[in-house]
Amino acid sequence: MLRGITSVRRNFILKRELFFPLPSKGGRFFFSFAGCRKRISRAVDTESLFGPFRIIKDSTNAAFFTNRALVRLRMDMYEQVIDDCLKAIDLIPSSLKAYSYLGQAQLKLGYPNEALSSTLRAYELAIAQRSPSVGTIATTCLEVKKKRWELSEERRRARESNLLKQVTQIIERDAEREVDLILRSPTWDPIESGRDYTGSEAQDKIDDVRSAAREKIQTLEDVFGKAEAERYRKREVPDYLIDNITFSVMLDPVITKHGHSYDRVTLLDHLKRSSTDPLTREPLTEKDLRPNLALKAACETFLKENGWAVDW
Fold it and tell me: What pLDDT shows up at residue 51?
């Protein structure tokens, strides 16, 4: 069946056939398969070499779609990842892997709002299912929030730059219009109507008009520059937003029966090792935790306006 084709292609076909019908065995081939495809993608048409990855054994098994989504995610096929994840979610609405991969693909494609929605859903499922990947997903949530802030900052700077450019053009245009009136009408004088200009007086007036325009533009640039500098001058995170274990901004704060707030993920990880409050050392279990909704809202607002705090 495989006679007459190159050994390299034969090996890839065998791995592909093993991976999709038998996902439990296919994982062993994933890294070599995906890695080889990446290495040769610059030299050949990989789609014609490997063909489409079709799920033909059982198209109602969500695991097949999440497995294929992971492969495509590793190979930077983000549009196809989204298709697979949405199909998996249709089959199993509580698919943790599907939402996690979906958020990663959406972020890579430049859709931070959608990525945040998907990643937060994955985080909720990870908490509910007690998944060991909850820490990784929580980190991804923070990265998505940072990326969303960065894109928002880029758009803001672009808007302000365009505004500065437009106002500058208006000032320059008004100045040139006034200069043109002086040049075309020697008897025109906005201050003393009817007075005749000599050549030197006209030139002096033109110089005054252009000098005033330059001063306005410089003042305008100073105002924009100071506003930008002030925006980045103070980069401090309020103490009440900081987790007492990791000393980073909290994503999902919970409060203990002793009145202390921690990030849920880091506190749960601590409780696996010691059933005590990290600060007071008094007995503490997961049942003693309650969501701190007010603090969570404050953290979300702060990160939305200060995405840099993710790396603080």
Answer: 47
